């Protein structure tokens, strides 16, 4: 058996992760709120409605999940994929620069992507619903013989 998060967070690390989750999760809730109100047409007819729905759910639902620390690695992964699509389908094709005070920047989606990668790597911390429900190792995957390759005859 191995654990995705096999370390124990200190109180300060957990507090920092809580603040990060609260701020970024709230930003995604507010960013996704108008999208979830019109989930299949918030970009008009330019983009497939299913992709629009996926982005709306990832941002709004993922933001809620981050705030409470529920299924944190899954929520962070969904938001990360959403940011990859935002970068590759919107910002980079438009020729946005990394930082542009006048607008047209891909700085924010890239920062959000980096934060999601960090949350996937570190986990939610102690002060999360994940930890309350599943303990400090919040996700446990049973290692099977097929995974280890030791079942060769």
Helix/strand order, N-terminal first: EHHHHHEH
Quaternary status of these chains?
A: single chain
Form type: globular
Largest sheet: 2 strands, antiparallel
Number of strands: 2
> What is the count of structural domains?
1
Distance between the termini: 22 Å
Instruction: Walk across the major sheet and give the strand order.
Output: 1-2
Our estimate of the beta-strand percent is: under 5%
Fraction of residues in helices?
Answer: 55-70%
Average pLDDT = 86
Structural class: mainly alpha
Structure description:
α2 (49-68) packs across α3 (72-91) and α3 runs antiparallel to α4. The chain has one domain (2-6, 26-143). It has a two-stranded antiparallel sheet. The protein has 6 helices and 2 strands; from the N terminus they run βαααααβα. It is an all-alpha fold and 153 residues long.
Concise account of the structure shown:
The chain is mainly alpha-helical. Helices cover 61% and strands 3% of the residues. It has a two-stranded antiparallel sheet.
Give me some keywords for this one:
single chain; 153 residues; mainly alpha; two-stranded antiparallel ribbon; globular
Reconstruct the topology from this structure.
Blueprint lengths: L1 E2 L7 H27 L11 H20 L3 H20 L15 H16 L6 H6 L5 E2 L3 H4 L5
Antiparallel strand pairs: 1-2
């Amino acid at each position: 058996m191995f654990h995705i998060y096999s370390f124990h967070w200190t109180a300060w690390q957990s507090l920092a992760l809580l603040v990060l989750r609260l701020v970024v999760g709230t930003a995604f809730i507010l960013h996704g709120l108008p999208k979830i109100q019109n989930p299949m047409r918030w970009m008009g007819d330019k983009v497939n409605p299913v992709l629009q729905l996926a982005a709306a759910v990832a941002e709004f639902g993922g933001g809620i999940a981050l705030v409470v620390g529920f299924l944190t690695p899954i929520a962070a992964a969904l938001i990360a994929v959403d940011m990859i699509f935002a970068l590759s389908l919107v910002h980079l094709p438009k020729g946005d620069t990394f930082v542009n005070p006048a607008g047209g920047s891909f700085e924010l989606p890239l920062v959000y992507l980096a934060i999601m990668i960090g949350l996937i790597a570190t986990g939610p911390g102690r002060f999360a619903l994940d930890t309350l429900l599943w303990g400090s190792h919040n996700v446990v995957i049973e290692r099977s013989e097929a995974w280890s390759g030791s079942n060769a005859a």
